[in-house]
Design brief:
8-stranded parallel sheet, about 10% strand, hydrolase, alpha/beta, about 40% helix
């Protein structure tokens, strides 16, 4: 199992913007302490090259990120102040997701400690997302003719609106988003399959919904590669999630996804996505469970 992480870029933000960014340091530290992974499994990505970025994002938008020319309005839409360090962090994350995908094609699964920047559109950023790492990695695999059919399984509590828009009309990438109906983004894009969830959904209803969807997805899409966004903002402890899924229910969600992919011999690259529980330990423990389940299944 490969774990993509680069501590150099873990905290490029001003102090007031760092929570819950600290999770990106705590996750690998806890996995190492518990013996889930070894130092040899931690991979440090290089910055992504421009040609690969431009497979997905517009040249104008990339130049804005490069030269720090985003307007105040554009920065507010992203929710983060622009900085060279933030742009660098983003392209390292994106290369990490590509590296995870390439590793997973040989070994079954790989996980990016960061990533899941599904609110980034081709020409703009939103919701703490500058560049769309799943979209970039999917387009790279397709451009290199390493895969023919990609499936994005997005189980973050927020709809993957950027991914939906980027791949609209592109049948080689099927977007599935199971998200809070009344949560951000309040204007939803149209994924290939959207499953909006009511506020307050508990473990049983959530897991039963997912159990119904996964076999249909695999049989319909027949993917030869899956990107899985395992956001833990579905937790009942999350400040913004509006669902009532327990930590055990979140772990069972991961078991359902990994088990069906393993059963069908479909490689998978995973990104952590969102998590905004009041206590950082709830976020880190839930993310670490995703790594533990991946190690158990694969």
């Amino acid at each position: 199992m490969l774990v993509a992480y680069d501590p150099i870029y873990a905290h490029p933000l001003p102090e007031g913007h760092r929570f819950p960014m600290v999770k990106y340091e705590l996750i690998p530290a806890q996995l190492l302490r518990e013996g889930v992974i070894t130092e040899q499994q931690i991979h440090t990505p290089a910055p992504l090259n421009e040609a690969t970025i431009l497979l997905t994002h517009t040249l104008h938008y990339w130049r804005q990120l490069q030269y720090q020319t985003l307007s105040d309005k554009e920065q507010r839409r992203i929710g983060l102040p622009q900085s060279p360090a933030l742009t660098l962090r983003e392209i390292v994350i994106c290369q990490g997701t590509i590296d995870c995908a390439l590793h997973a094609m040989e070994h079954g699964v790989a996980l990016n400690v960061a990533g899941g920047t599904h609110h980034a559109f081709a020409d703009r950023g939103e919701g703490f997302c500058l560049l769309n790492d799943f979209a970039i990695a999917a387009n790279y695999l397709l451009q290199q003719r390493l895969v023919k059919q990609v499936l994005i399984i997005d189980l973050d509590v927020h709809q993957g609106n950027g991914s939906a828009a980027i791949f609209e009309g592109k049948p080689e990438v099927y977007t599935f988003s199971m998200h809070g109906a009344h949560n951000y983004p309040f204007h939803k894009e149209t994924s290939d399959w959207d499953v909006p969830l009511p506020d307050g959904m508990n473990d049983t209803d959530y897991l039963n919904t997912l159990k119904d969807c996964l076999p249909v997805l695999i049989n319909k899409v027949k993917p030869d590669f899956v990107f899985y966004l395992s956001g833990v903002d579905i937790l009942e402890t999350d400040r913004y999630g509006k669902l009532k899924v327990t930590a055990q229910g979140c772990r069972q969600r991961d078991e359902l996804v990994f088990s069906i992919l393993k059963k069908h011999d479909i490689p998978c690259a995973v990104a952590m996505g969102g998590g905004y529980s009041t206590h950082i330990k709830d976020i880190v423990n839930a993310h670490c469970n995703t790594f533990k389940v991946a190690a158990e299944v694969f």
